């Protein structure tokens, strides 16, 4: 199984909780409480889950939790994960590429000549290699 998450990231990837305060209710003991438009009013994300923070102020799509998976990648920083020290951080550009099944060697070549924003866009506009492979096998 491909390792997706990097073991260490810089502080630039930490989520500004003030920016997402309408979406993230709180973080406590390995859990992120995320506001959702459900009867309960929230969902809980654990380490290994992702939290989509693309629309923090919306009532119906403010935060979506991916249980052990990443939600659809878009073209900017929108997916976050809980760190081992209970901080919420964005997926890195490299992690976004890994989720698309793209090898680190390709990422490193692209990162040498491409901005961080463009790397997120390329991952978000990409098509997951494994998915295309499985579809092609059925044809």
From TrEMBL:
Entry keyword Transferase: yes
This protein's record includes keyword Transferase: yes
Superkingdom in the source lineage: Bacteria
MF terms in GO: methyltransferase activity
GO BP field: DNA restriction-modification system; methylation
Pfam family name, one: DNA_methylase
InterPro entries xref list: C5_MeTfrase, SAM-dependent_MTases_sf
Keywords tagged on the record: Methyltransferase, Restriction system, Transferase
SUPFAM superfamilies associated with the record: S-adenosyl-L-methionine-dependent methyltransferases
Name under which the protein is recorded: DNA methyltransferase
UniProt source species: Bacillus cereus
């Amino acid at each position: 199984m491909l390792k997706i998450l990097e073991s260490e990231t810089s502080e630039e990837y930490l989520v500004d909780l003030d920016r997402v305060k309408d979406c993230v209710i709180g973080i406590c003991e390995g859990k992120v409480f995320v506001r959702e438009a459900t009867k309960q009013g929230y969902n809980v994300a654990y380490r290994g889950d992702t939290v989509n923070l693309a629309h923090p102020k919306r009532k119906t799509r403010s935060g979506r939790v991916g249980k052990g998976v990443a939600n659809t990648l878009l073209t900017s920083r929108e997916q976050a994960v809980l760190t081992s020290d209970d901080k919420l951080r964005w997926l890195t550009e490299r992690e976004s590429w890994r989720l698309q099944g793209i090898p680190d060697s390709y990422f490193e070549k692209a990162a040498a000549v491409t901005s961080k924003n463009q790397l997120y866009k390329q991952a978000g506009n990409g098509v997951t290699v494994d998915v295309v492979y499985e579809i092609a096998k059925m044809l």
